[in-house]
Amino acid sequence: MKQKAAKKDVPVKNVRCTARRKKPTVRFSPSEKLIKANEEGVTGSNVVKKSKKPRSEWPLQRKCPFSFDPEEEPDEQLLKAFDQWMNEGLQKDHEERNVVVKYVPHHEQLTKTLDFGITITHKKSWLYILHQPKQWLTDDHICTCFYYLRKKRKYNMDWFKQFFTTTDTYFANYLKSGWKEFNNSGGKLDWEKLSTIRSYIVGGRMACHFPWTEVDRVYIPVHDEVLEHWILFIVDLSTRAVTVYDSLKSDKDTRVKDKLEPVATFLPILLDSLSIFTERKDENGLAPFKVEHCSENPQQDNGGDCGVFVIKYAEYLMHDYSILDVCQEKMDFFRGKLAFELYSHAMDKEEKELASDLERE
């Protein structure tokens, strides 16, 4: 019996094996899918049908994301799809405030950049902060919402009874610094150093701004750095009063004093120097503003909703709505509505290439 020949050892070359990479999946939100299906006329249970209900916000929808009526509810089916999308891909510790990125990587990066006029983002976490309960809003969120509140009036002045404008979150800090410099200099106004404050008042600092000679009320969002808390000041130039709307009222006098004193005392001096009172035929000029604390505004029951309270205090008061409706029980609705309307507006601008000249200011 023949023996089988022994197999020779054949040298094996080192071959580098590389796994074939899959192309990354482009992820669209349910809102995008539903809107696209609706526009293409696709039939099916997930298609958004045009509502027969007249949309009161339609005349300003291409200019401002917010419905004219602050209490008008968004499309139910689109809002539900948006809420589901917002809850997809969350990190396990997403509720922790020190966690900046709330989603796993392939959910965090948006397929399209969201352009909100004064700020741009391509991160889903930006929307998360607005959307999720108890999340503390940043300067960026507050400034964006107040920009659109100004824009809302800019394009619909005949619909508002009030003559108003807003500032951003930085105005109170500029005023506080200017007040300190004023006191240190023995009461001298240096308009070279105060040029930023001047641009807030007469124009040129912010998009969709109204000069203060043309308004009666100025809505000022204020940040208390000690407690990481948002408060609303409303300066009424016609009555020479500052009203404080605080959703956490304990120790109100001591907590807001360093921001309130410059508004009540220093601001009249600046306005008088800029002849704002002369144009308004106000002879009280340099006299400090009267300070009032609203006693009936609803309160928050957690440490994160103050920013939403400030936005909604302002919006409701601009419309002469009852501030009692800005309550803790409505915070989830307000958050969902804000996030959904901003996202939908940015997507609409991106897809239809919509932009007004004022957004370029």
UniProtKB/TrEMBL annotation:
Protease recorded as keyword: yes
GO cellular component: nucleus
Keywords of this entry: Hydrolase, Protease, Thiol protease
Domain Ubiquitin-like protease family profile: start-end pairs: 118-317
SUPFAM superfamilies tied to this protein: Cysteine proteinases
UniProt GO molecular function: deSUMOylase activity
Record carries keyword Nucleotidyltransferase: no
One Gene Ontology term from the biological process aspect of the record: protein desumoylation
PANTHER family: SENTRIN/SUMO-SPECIFIC PROTEASE, ULP1 PROTEASE FAMILY PROTEIN
Family from the record: Belongs to the peptidase C48 family.
Name of the featured protein: Ulp1 protease family, C-terminal catalytic domain containing protein
